[in-house]
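just leaving the lab so this will be short. what follows is a protein written twice so to speak, once as letters and once as structure tokens for the fold. can you read through it and tell me how you think this chain folds. thanks a lot i owe you, the record is right below.

___
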Amino acid sequence: MKFITRLDYLEYRKKCLDNILEEEKSQYILEISKREKWDEEIDKKHDKIFKVILGQKREMTKFLNQFLNLRETLKEEQLIQCSTEFITKRYKSKYTDILYRLKEIPIYFLIEHQSTVDRKMIERMGTYVGEIMRKEKSNGLYPIVVPIVIYTGSSKWTAKTKFMEKQYQEENYSEYQINLWYNLVAVRDFEFEKLAEKNTLLSAIMIIEKCKTQEELLEQVEKIIENRKQDKDKEIFLEIICNIVYPYLGKKMTDKILGKIEKREEKSMSLLKEMMLDLAIRGEAKGKLETVKKTVENMLNLGESEDKIIKYTGISKEELENIKKMIVN
């Protein structure tokens, strides 16, 4: 005679729970994987925008003059953009974001864009600088390379900016330490007003990257639109909106922003107010859905017919089926 003991039952429950937890874990890992892929795609778009903007000598010149403490102001005609591919013996190929040099003298400006903290950035910069020096050596002299990191992440940049900070420290041998370092331009360290004063495409993208909420993002985008007076940059600015703002505001609000840029129409209601109203309507709709869902669940538990539920709540049969699936899940 076979029978189930309490121990068998407890073991059965444990297996069921383990299966449920494993399914939830798999779903969680899947969601994390999707999010990581989404973030990676956004980062790629952001990198592209930075390359497009700093690929213009006019914008690059403004950036160097505004963010570096140069003794002499650079002029656009002094800069030459260089290829960013370097072949090494150790690596098949290494790429950096932006590389310029001065036309008359061997001084290079090397720029990397980072949306996350890279603790090995100084080593990467060392590799890039070494390759530039190896490739561009002329008349027995190595060029000067000015490394720059533009960081658009929201957290503090915690990576070392000087190579000697990662070297063993010994006073008697300090003269042998490697004096390699890079300039850090961290968006989080600038106030919105200071960035707005610069009035460049790059400062506009930095403002957008700095925003932490939808409301803040939309408010700052409105200000940028009002301050933009260079019509020749219109196409690039539209690309910025499409590639950076869209993932955070969605199609509806992005379309409104693009429409405002295109037409410059004065509206009685600001984009920010429109968005807040849109969010409020969605919130109200969500509240109503929860109420209807609860009512349907209660009526189903009481054994009421579908026809009666539809008549009482005013929903359609299709909506009822969808709510029933939500309840089951």
About this structure: The longest strand covers residues 107-114. Residues 28-32 have pLDDT under 50 and may be disordered. Residues 6-54 form the longest helix (49 residues). The beta strands are 79-81, 85-86, 94-95, 98-102, 107-114, 144-151, 183-186.
